[in-house]
Each structure stands twice: as structure tokens, then as C-alpha cells.
Write a structure and sequence with these properties.
10 strands; four-stranded parallel beta sheet; Rossmann fold; about 45% helix; 2 domains; about 15% strand
Amino acid sequence: MTLLVHANKTQKSALVFLQNLLIIIVSILLSLVLVACTSTPTEQTPTADTNQNTAERVVSLTSLSSDIIYQLDQTKLVGTTSSRLLNQDPRFEEIPKVSQGQTLPNLEKIVALKPDLVIANAEFHAQLLPKFQELGITTLTTQIEKWQDLETITNTLAEAIGADPAPLLTRYQTFLGEPVSDSPSTLVLVSRQPILAPNKDSWAGDLLTKFGAKNIVADLQGKSPVGGYVTLSAEKVLEANPEVLLVVDTGQGIVEQFKSEPFWNQLKATQRDRVYVFDYYGLVNPGSIDKIEAACNQLKKALSGA
């Protein structure tokens, strides 16, 4: 009889233990479910690379990106910057401008346009980029220093707005043609005081490389305040004595200024009448697709002597 009582007590204890264990397990499971339901998801700052939705309202702060967006899908461009190229282009007359001249864009004007994408220059608009981030506005930055950069940004912008970049990329290739064989020694003069010339690490220098030009200063590095350019003395220009001179017109009568230099008439290029004046846009600053095409066409003629 005593053994039977002890057995019943043991069974009851085991049953209570199992019931308590079951309660603990259920409690743990419920707590995990509640945590999973109430946890806050990790927030990500929207970027053009991670945003799954294509941009519908684009404000472009450079003339080239404005042109690219317009040609990819003109309905997406709701704001641009003020520049000589855009102000003279009838396509952009009705599109709101968010800046005046060379001043920084007006942040309030940009916000008022309710953009879901702003395209900015990585250097010139650097101080605005943190403000765009604070406002949660997706931003793409551009820096066009080589031909490859042009193709890359075209692909990136096309993806951002859900457009097909193929027609533009195909058009770009028609600008280049075959590199000139047996190219003459060439020097590009961008300014007179100081005398600046582009090496291979600039848009102009890379463009010369695409055409097979023998850029005299391609591999030179200097202390020029402008990246991708070297500073030359009058003596260095005369020593280099290029067969072809490409002078960039910045609207300040630079050609006439160079003609007053003592070395000017001693150069092979001037003696053989192979001095060519180029627009600043296209050769130094890409500016727009049409300007790039015009510069390429002029380079073909200048380097071939046509």
C-alpha cells in the first residue's frame, strides 16, 4: 500500500513537471512571434543603385546630363540648371531653371519641383549633396573625364528612368570613326595666363587619344590647379614646336592674345596654317551630345589636314 501511494505521487509530480515545461515552451514561442511582429525594419537611404522604382521626376544640374535625360525620355525632366548651352536650346525653354548663371542651384526651387532624382556634378555641387540626403532625395553624381564616363553615365541614367540607352550609345560610336594614321604632333591650348594644356587624364586628352593624336603633353604631370592639365611656359611651347595647334575659344579673344606672343610665328603649326579654333564645349567641357559630335568632326578634319 505504501509503495502504491509513492508511485501515484511520483506520477503526479512527473505530470506537473511536464505541464510546467510545456507552458515555458509555449511562452518562449509566443515571445519570439511577438518580437518578430513588432521589430522595426532597417531603413536605407534611397540611392539610384538600390531604388527598385524608376524615377519619374528628374532635376538635372548639368547641361550634359540634362541633354542625356531629355533624349532618353523628355517627359522625365522637370528641372534643369541655367547655362549658356541650355539657355540657347529651345528644347529647354519651358523647363524650370533652378539656378542663375554659375551660381549654386536654389535648394528651395529644387524641392518645390518634387523630384525623385537629382543629378549633380560630384565636385561643383558637393556642398548640396548632404542636404539632398537629409531630405531623402535620391541623387546621382557625375564626373565626365573620359569617353568611358560618357557611356557609363548614359547607361546609369537610362536605368534610373527606365529607358533604353542603346540608340544613344550607338550614336556615340558614329562620332569616333577610325583613329588617324600617322597623326601629327598636337598641342591643345586652353588658356594663355597661365598656358594650360590637357594631358591624357582629361576629357580633351582622352578624346585626342581616341583619334590617335600625338598629344605632346599626354604623359606630362604638373602642378596645375586644374586636374588633367599641365602648365607650360612659352619656352616649353616653342621647344615642343607642335605641327598642329588646337586653341580653345573661351570667349575672351584667346587666339588674338596668343598671336601677340613672340613664339607664335615660330611654330610649325602657325607657319603651315594648321591652327584650329575649337569651342570650349565639346572639347574641354563635354557640354552636350551635339557639342561632342561637333568637336569630334572638327578633330577628324584637323588631324587629317582636310
